[in-house]
Design a protein that fits this description.
Layout lengths: L8 H12 L3 E5 L2 E4 H17 L7 E5 L4 H13 L2 E5 L5 H11 L3 E5 L1 E2 L2 E2 H8 L8 E5 L2 H7 L5 H8 L7 E7 L7 E6 H15 L6 E4 L6 H14 L2 E4 L5 H11 L3 E4 L1 H9 L13 E5 L5 H10 L4 E8 L4 E5 L6 H6 L2 E3 L4 E5 L12 E6 L11 H7 L5 E10 L4 E7 L4 E3 L2 E3 L1 H9 L4 E11 L3 E10 L7 H9 L10 E4 L13 H15 L1
Parallel strand pairs: 1-12, 3-4, 3-5, 4-9, 5-8, 11-12, 11-13, 13-14, 14-15, 25-26
Antiparallel strand pairs: 1-2, 6-7, 9-10, 15-16, 16-17, 17-21, 18-19, 19-20, 20-21, 22-23, 24-25
């Protein structure tokens, strides 16, 4: 099919409906939803939202699992020119309030509840803490059902479509920041489709492909690398509410899936499951790993476990709207273990020193990328945007890397202190701020340490307040009430003091040396 070179997400859906409306877009449990049916569902929602007063440029929060309603709301928002503030269902009060307030979200569509959490009760309790939020709709309740049942108004939708522009923000996606303040990356329609299109063309994805959608839709791994690539090829996505190894293997088997993308932890859990051999995974033609480096041993296991699949790395970040570096078609398993791949066609990459000078091949510096995939900055954060979104259209990734002479990119570590736990980015300072707010904590500092299952986990060194004796359980519970569960410290170490620089800053290099020494002694 013809790709919308400079279109919008709504335009891409319309083009696919015109050419392949009867093709199944989403499979979810026993449901099979075609492109035409999703178009109709999102038309009704868009009409309902418009009649509530939503207009182009407004923001709307969205918190749900990987389920059809998420995409109904997303495409409805795109048809009106709304930016979707993508929220993780693991977020709790402090995170939700900050992101909804900072984005100025006018409304919210949210799951009513999970088995262990009641979102409807939470938002009812927040009252005037969300002054800009004028509308709630809860999936599973009448508030959402009535909105979704609104008869579509073709004239209203045509009027809205005439105002859409590729530069319109499609998503405001919050990433944790080194200052403890999450930053909302503004992913435009243009940048979203540019990243998805580059991935489609690089891998040669096609209409007959069936992708497994386990990566969360609230992040680029789900909405760009999985759903939008399917949209541009009129292929199908099997949505799973969340990852679990047996459910994923069963879905690959039952639907003869051809594409699976996940973080290394997902592959490890599938391959290590005692029932792995019971499932037929021979249909898989792409096994794509993203989120963090794949260890050489795991690369070999993936290649052996999925023998008909091409193993490939995918490197991208929220600020690049999705993939910008992918394994080359000629990369074997050894190359995938060594390098994250090459900058995809249409985008550019370079490595720079601390002074901003471009470094030659083989020298380590910061990886920077440029192209239509680059987001439009951080929502209403000009200073932080200027640090990351550089003159000339370059995006500073914050990752240290070197470029090989043939263009392969080799990651060497993160310039900042972020660690990746089970595929989720965690910045220690955000957790340190929560720990430091505990009345029995004088000081806290965290680092990422290796973990055989999650890749990395957070280890936090805590200095108790004078006369206080907090327990690890107390502090974990304190964090659990205030942070998403993947940010809660897995390891807490109590110390009388922390190593400090003459300026009074914690010497995290010394903590890493201590952690490495402790791990060596355990081995």
């Amino acid at each position: 099919m013809t790709f919308p070179a400079r279109g919008t997400a709504a335009g891409a859906l319309r083009e696919t409906v015109e050419q392949a409306g009867a093709q199944v877009f989403l499979r979810f449990g026993d449901e099979a939803i075609t492109y035409a049916e999703l178009d109709e569902r999102s038309d009704r929602l868009a009409t309902g939202l418009a009649r509530l007063g939503y207009r182009r440029g407004d923001r709307i929060g969205l918190a749900a699992l990987n389920q059809p309603e998420w995409l109904d709301v997303f495409f409805a928002a795109q048809k009106l020119g709304l930016a979707v503030v993508t929220l993780n269902v693991r977020y709790r009060e402090a995170e939700l309030c900050y992101m909804l307030n900072q984005s100025g979200a006018r409304g919210l569509v949210c799951l009513a509840r999970l088995p262990d959490f009641d979102f409807q009760a939470l938002f009812a309790s927040l009252g005037d803490r969300l002054p800009a939020l004028s509308h709630h709709a809860f999936i599973g309740e009448a508030s959402y059902a009535e909105l979704a049942a609104t008869p579509a108004d073709p004239g209203l939708l045509a009027e809205a479509a005439a105002q859409l522009d590729p530069s319109d923000p499609a998503i405001v996606l919050y990433t944790s920041g080194t200052t403890g303040q999450p930053k909302g990356a503004v992913i435009t329609n243009r940048s979203l489709l540019a990243s998805a299109r580059a991935q489609v063309e690089h891998f040669g994805l096609r209409a007959s492909d069936v992708a497994i959608g386990t990566m969360p839709l609230n992040h680029v791994g789900g909405i760009t690398c999985t759903v939008s690539t399917a949209l541009l090829t009129a292929s199908s996505v099997v949505l799973l509410p969340a990852f679990d190894p047996v459910g994923t293997l069963a879905a690959i088997d039952a639907h003869r899936a051809t594409v699976f993308g996940g973080v290394p932890t997902m592959y490890l859990l599938m391959l290590s499951h005692p029932d792995f051999a019971r499932y037929d995974v021979s249909s898989l033609r792409y096994a794509i790993a993203g989120g963090s480096n794949v260890e050489p041993e795991l690369c070999e296991r993936i290649a052996a476990g999925f023998p008909n699949a091409r193993l490939a790395n995918l490197y991208g970040l929220s600020e690049s709207s999705g993939a910008c570096v992918l394994s080359a078609s000629s990369d074997d398993v050894a190359a995938v273990a060594r390098s994250i791949g090459v900058v995809v066609d249409g985008f550019e990459g370079r490595v720079t020193g601390l002074d901003g000078a471009v470094l030659p091949a083989g020298e380590i510096g910061e990886l920077q990328v440029r192209g239509e995939c680059v987001a439009a900055g951080y929502w209403e954060m000009p200073e932080q945007s200027a640090e990351t979104f550089l003159p000339g259209g370059w995006l500073a990734t914050g990752d240290m890397a070197l470029l090989e002479p043939d263009g392969h990119v080799v990651l060497k570590g993160r310039r900042k202190e972020m660690y990746i736990q089970g595929g989720y980015n965690v910045y220690p300072v955000e957790v340190e701020n929560v720990l430091g707010a505990h009345p029995e904590v004088a000081m806290a500092a965290g680092i990422g340490v290796p973990d055989p299952v999650l890749g990395e986990v957070g280890r936090y060194y805590v200095v108790p307040a004078p006369g206080a004796h907090p327990t690890a359980g107390d502090l974990a519970a304190w964090c659990r009430e205030r942070l998403a569960d993947y940010k809660v410290p897995r390891e807490l170490v109590f110390a009388e003091q922390l190593p400090l620089t003459p300026a009074g800053k914690v010497q995290k290099a010394a903590l890493r040396e201590t952690a490495a020494r402790d791990n060596a002694e355990r081995v």
